[in-house]
Amino acid sequence: MADQVQVGAPPADKVVVVPDVPLAEKPPVAAAAAAKEPPPVPESEEEPVKQKQVEDAEALETKISDAVADGDDEEKVPQSGHYKEESTRVADLLENEKKAVEELKVLVREALNKHEFGGFAMPQQQQQQQPKDDSAKEEPKPKAEAVTETVAETKEESIAQAETGDDEEKVATATVRSDAVEDDGAKTVEAIEDTIVSVSASVQPEQPPEAASKEPSDAKPNVEGKDAETVSNKVLPQEVSIWGIPLLADERSDVILLKFLRARDFKVKEAFTMLQNTIRWRKEFDIDELVEQDFGNDLEKVVFMHGFDKEGHPVCYNVYGEFQNKELYQKTFSDEDKRQNFLRWRIQFLEKSIRKLDFSPGGICTIVQINDLKNSPGLTKWELRQATKQALQLLQDNYPEFVARQVFINVPWWYLAVNKMISPFLTQRTRSKFVFAGPSKSAENLFRYIAAEQVPVRYGGLSKDGEFGNTDAVTEITVKPAAKHTVEFPVTEACLLTWEVRVVGWEVNYGAEFVPSGEDSYTIIIQKSKKVGCSEGEVVCDNFKVGEPGKVVLTIHNPTSKKKKLLYRLKTMPASA
Length: 577
Hints:
Helicase, Ruva Protein, domain 3, alpha/beta
């Protein structure tokens, strides 16, 4: 296949020559960052607020309509501020952020050592329970054990008397029993400890084999006092994993901890509490088992993954208009059990998507969300609103910083009014991650972040099953109003030339012809110029078998007063193939 070249946007009535196969035009890359879904709309508002909301909505609708009618470059839609996705490398962080990461790691390490994740017992509790468990045994004891027990009771009695300031006569009496009389209370305790160790060592050979096997710590006479107690009560650190990544295992753990820190503005204690709650919730929700469950394929058109953005983030599409299907809506939201099932399905979908991400430093560990609001049921569907609200809360609490960008397309006027109402309650960082586009600008906004070959056909792109794949680059050109644009594909040898062409919104005239290089040759009409309406064929796929040198010429005539986005790509195959 011949080399591909990139084609820019030429002026009207100008010819663009493309040597064989064009490359996709690569506009500047837009940065993306993780974000949360917008909070739910308040249930009720005071009358003045409602009146102002209606006025704002009407004003926004008027502005949008005027923008569409005038053919402005941008609709009067609230746009996000510029936001740069933060680094996931600890070395790139500010000093205070690095310190926060280290402090959080210390807290996590202590919690793992104490088994504080998942409701396990702490080692201290185990140590306190250990003597009680031993004393609770009602098995017959040898004489030697009885002696040891008597001395141990003497030790406890003496320590209690020494600490409470009892008279020295009682302390001395207890000391005589242990063959270590001392005047000082502290020395008395030490003598008692030595006596216990010596008595235990001397009577050890008299213990039956069964008793020795039950108390292995006593079989080590060389280990004394507190050291023996530490060895017998040593507990290994707890092992906890989240999204398949063990905590504090390697650099990937730092990426996980950074998500919780950023979700809490690097407030270490709050981030640690959030992490604890998330791990506890995952255990209660039984996430690992949930991932393996089968929920059927009824909702596969509602939420689905498709392609990647220009930064390499996987793209998730949420199509709320699918719930206009009354049968699907009732099957999903008609009662509490079904709403809970929908919630579990949504969590499962997100879990499977997250586990495919790259948590290594510098890797892609966030997702781009595309929210299609075309024909959305809106706020009138109480069941949908409740399920969405509950899902949103769970995602905010347990999946921090997993959304690189939130793009809302086919946005109706009422949603813009709602967004304007809740925007003051969002941080600038959160608002900067949102992008809104009305129906006439949805495809254009998608192309800012996602290459046309990765965008599904239904949203203005060229991604579909057929001759071309998602890796076959697309060239994007803007056709000016009331202008004619031509693209030429020179051919130097016999081959089969195949191309795809699309004009977003169409309402233009399209034609194709082959012009041979020979002076005595005649032009061959491949496609007679015809008007293509917005409802006719979303993508035109054509081919022509070339038998002599020449060029294939595509002509796009835009008679409207609006700019049009032209997309095309082609490939050649040898005539022998």
